[in-house]
Amino acid sequence: MKTSVSINWLDKMAFEGEADGHKFIFDADPQVGGEGRGFRPKQFMMYALAGCTAMDVISILKKMRVEVEAFHVEVESELTEEHPKHYTSAHIIFTFKGKDLPMDKLEKAVNLSEERYCGVSTVYKKVMPVTTEIRIEE
Amino acid sequence: MKTSVSINWLDKMAFEGEADGHKFIFDADPQVGGEGRGFRPKQFMMYALAGCTAMDVISILKKMRVEVEAFHVEVESELTEEHPKHYTSAHIIFTFKGKDLPMDKLEKAVNLSEERYCGVSTVYKKVMPVTTEIRIEE
Predict the structure, then answer these.
(1) CB-based contact (8 Å) between B83 and chain A?
(2) B78/A contact by beta carbon, under 8 A
(3) Is B87 close to A119, i.e. CB distance below 8 A?
(4) Quick one: average pLDDT of B77-85?
(5) In terms of domains, do A31 and A82 share one?
(6) What confidence score (pLDDT) does residue B85 get?
(7) What pLDDT is recorded for position A138?
(8) Which CATH number belongs to the domain containing residue B50 in this structure?
(9) Of A38, A79, A90, A114, which is the most exposed, with the fewest CB atoms less than 10 Å away?
């Protein structure tokens, strides 16, 4: 299936992206000519991973009838210091809040996403370690 | 260098990301339980590529004293039909608008980004073909 995204230059280092009426801005830090008006493009690589697996997990848990009160996904990653500055690892921390949450089902949902459904993880795993961790907050 | 991003579950399939005061929403299509309130997470993989190389190119052209009136970056990509649905190629189209734009300098800027600076391209090139194309609009 063919897909496409595009961004338009605004000025200086700022670009705008738009899809289905939703917009965001990319901008660089002031020390490299930007004005900090938006997101760093590279961050979007890790937001893609967080969002892709988070949607899988919440939808699998719904099918398992596991009720979650709050859910938060963080991705910690290692970035090289030298050009081209790029990510070399991703560690995904899934934090759930709820009553008597069943760890086995949470693990199953996370594993299904990582092994079968998350197409972002599929790509990144080929070039860097992608690890996961589950935390429960009562 | 360690970096981190995170998203918070809102409800249904919607999540919110926030960095330095900037926000965006991820949401799924209605046919998979979402309400189309935001971006698809996977798209962010290709926005990351577009933004990363676009910022390189505009900043290299500035150093070369090439004046561009308008600049647009599109990424066309191929997505598998089967789970895990993932990208298998990326074609970046750089469209410049301006007077008497020097193609050799535009090419040099794009090549420098692809070969030396863009850390998103660096990662994706290891797992899929990443190609480029330059278009000039008078």
Answers:
(1) yes
(2) yes
(3) yes
(4) 96
(5) no
(6) 96
(7) 79
(8) 3.30.300.20
(9) A79
